[in-house]
Amino acid sequence: MEYFKTIATIFECDSTMDFARTVKYLINPPFVVRSYIQRSGRGQYGRVWSSSLGGLYFTEVLHLDNILGFSTFLSIPIIRVLKKYVNDVKVKWPNDIVIGRKKLAGILVEKSDFVYSGVGINISNEIDNEFIKTSTRLSDYAKVNETDLFYEILEEEERVIGEFFKNGFKNFVKEYNENLVFLRNEIEVESNGVIRGIVEGVGEYGELILRTKDKIEKIFSGTILNFYK
């Protein structure tokens, strides 16, 4: 690896996001922490991420002054690699990877002293009963080795991350929109109230663009409602 020169692999931890914050004093960023099991994995808004053996869970730690568009950017290398195994993967704004109406992978980006980007992908892990109806696994569609997939994603990210550092997300907008769920369809988004509109795509900062009855809305943070049924 040229960019992520240090990769720390452990068997079990509470969450790779929390573990990465601990070892940042021992390892100079950029680095990656991977765990085979997370006892308390989490996603957006503190939601639980079921993280038993057989899935892929890792956190990247890097220097980045402006994270605008970074979480949507991270969908690009992940989607590219996953499409080698199953072509039906799509991205649900801002950064869930889905097959149909079921979640396959998620990305969580947090910024404090460094940028911490956590990735969780269901591969052959058991899915908790409460998430069975809304989640899916890669092994249901293809034979996949978690470690091979891990390095494929990092290698693909390293190929394109320099472009993001230089020009931001704008050169990835077209590809992201080509893989976007609900493009040209009407949805509802919770973002300081419920906004209903037609999805026009995302903009150069990763913002969701909705055409409402009255105007064009640009939404930088929010949740698409009633997706996982």
Automatic annotation (TrEMBL):
Keywords (A to Z) from UniProt: Biotin, Ligase
Keyword Ligase: yes
Highest taxon of the lineage: Bacteria
Top enzyme category: ligase
GO-annotated molecular function: biotin--[biotin carboxyl-carrier protein] ligase activity
Documented EC number(s): 6.3.4.15
Protein name as catalogued: biotin--[biotin carboxyl-carrier protein] ligase
Domain named BPL/LPL catalytic: residues: 1-172
Record field: catalytic activity: biotin + L-lysyl-[protein] + ATP = N(6)-biotinyl-L-lysyl-[protein] + AMP + diphosphate + H(+)
PROSITE patterns associated with the record: BPL_LPL_CATALYTIC
Ligase recorded as keyword: yes
Gene Ontology CC terms: cytoplasm
InterPro entries linked: aa-tRNA-synth_II/BPL/LPL, Biotin_CoA_COase_ligase, BPL_C, BPL_LPL_catalytic
